[in-house]
Write the structure tokens for this entry.
Amino acid sequence: MTAPALSVGDCSLLPDLLGASRPTGWPGLRKAAESALQHQDLPTTKDEDWKYADLRGLKALAFVPGQPETLDIKGRILPEARGTRLVFINGHHDPHHSCTSALPQGVRLLHLASASEAATQLGSLLKPDDSDIFANLNSARFLDGAYIFVPKNVKVETPLHLLFMSHANEAATFSQPRIIVVVEPGAEVELIEEYAGNGTYLTNSCVEIFIGENAELRHERIQRESTSAFHISNLRAKVSRDGRYHSRTISFGANFSRQTPQVSIQGTGADVILDGLALLNGTQVADTHSVLDHTQPDCTSHQLHKAIVDDEARAIFNGRIFVRRGAHGTDARQQSRNLLLSEKARVDTKPQLEIDADDVKCAHGAAVGQLDPEELFYLQSRGLNDQAARNLLTYGFAADLLAHIPVTSLRRQLRHAVMERTNATDLAADLGEMA
Amino acid sequence: MLSIKNLSATIGDTKVLKGINLEIKTGEVHAIMGPNGSGKSTLGKVLAGHPAYLVTDGEVLFEGRNLFEMEADERARAGVFMGFQHPIEVPGVSNAQFLRLAYNKQAEANGREEMDPLEFDDFIREKIQLVGMRDEFLDRSLNVGFSGGEKKRNEILQMAVLEPKLAILDELDSGLDVDALRIVGEAVTALKSPDKAILLITHYQRLLDHIPASHIHILQDGRIVKSGGPELAREVESRGYDWVKEETTAVANQ
């Protein structure tokens, strides 16, 4: 193929990502993506959807494909998912650390390169000509990823864990995982999608989710990439009648991260939760652009997006909710709540509701602020000094979103990580072991 | 125990307290009564160390120590407790965690043994009986989703855990129905002891049916205009506050 035309200085991102030979499998999808890429270029801050996302750091780097290697994943093992885990290192499936021995009958948890049955779904929600260039880059060159299939009426008791680890030394590396999740009618499953690593690298992931009638997917998305990494994630989910998609995205890591979840409700009675929490410091930037599309009557959606921003970090939230004509009886709530911990920290938040239906209950709001002096005084009046009171309130602001994570070991891990981030570790002994 | 001399305080440009004098000894229960806007809640907040108020004159000694040289948290650790009229909600931190944290901060400051979660669990389960709360309240986030009455009970639970020398209870009866008021009143009465003191701040006499006060003070326009025994509260109940005002004005005009 011919490399797309470049307009951004010496930026080599596109040739770097496309230069590698086309991986085997899915030739149709890859070809279509390549031809779409001919007409696309990397976004700049002049693009409305990327207005606050400065990609210069990413554009200045040269990237090489991530190579398989052996990494220690001990700290990332969740006891609940001991036999339901897939591990990828630098984008490559790691059979040594993966273990799928505890899967119930009929449930599939495969690395994508070995899952020819993914053909039906792959590329059907994230089409090869998506408007997001990063999605198309993934379609053109993804190497591997995960395929999850839960058959009709099967309720999976153990959580499934996808762990994507990256490690880069001198040269910046990239990986482009692709994930397909199919939950058949009446089935239920809990999925943990986790990213972590060391060094400077790019993760460009794409997730396609299919939730059948009366099926349920609980989805915890943990982004704890290295603080010099770039993390870009496109997610598209389709929810059928009475289906439930409950997701939480927790972002601690990356120098720059971009989450683009788009959920389309395509049957009545569906229920969607699309929560997010970003904890940022240093010069981190976390950008969330979400879309929740109500196309059918009598569905509910809740979105609570929180950010705690310290130092010179920056959080961006742009959440769009569409209530289409005919989607009467919709109940959609959206809240963006942001805590600024320093003078140079910055939040740009834009909740948006577009309603074309009658008889709907919709509410949205945004709040950006510092800690409330009345709350601080309350804690001080109980004997906590100013700093301890501040740390506890900050911790609570974040931990509130973790309380509903059903996997105990993950919930504890994340609470501990939040404690570290909010300097509340000195309170850890006093707060005790938290269930 | 507490000695307030000529205390004046402002918030913004407004003078709220205009020369308060009050002596509270151990074992006593005092009640500050007064109409809305008289400054009674301000008095509580100034004593507890709310940063929004500026003390412009006077002094307050607590066990001989100058209260205004201590931060709010130091006062708390020294044994001053304030039960809030509107307790604050703190999501993400369970009631039990918070209670133990507060208990241990206090214990640490006073050279007492701190408690680990198991010890504290036994301790707290006994205390919640006192305020008639169910165990589940311990696992819920601090005050989040609590009804007005539950929040007030939780304040008294905190008081029971921290065992303050001086408890200032601001409008404890507001938001309480008759049954809750009785339970909270009994709990506070049970926490009374000869080496402690309580300062009740209330608009209504009904609270004093449940927590008998030995000393009643009527606060008006930032000053204590009348002090007396329990009979003064009953007089307020039957006659309201206006007669005190008229009487004071008459005295002033003589």
Q: What stands out?
A: Chain A has eight helices and 21 strands. The two ends of chain A are 54 Å apart (CA to CA). Residues 386-402 of chain A form the longest helix (17 residues). Residues 1-8 of chain A have pLDDT under 50 and may be disordered.
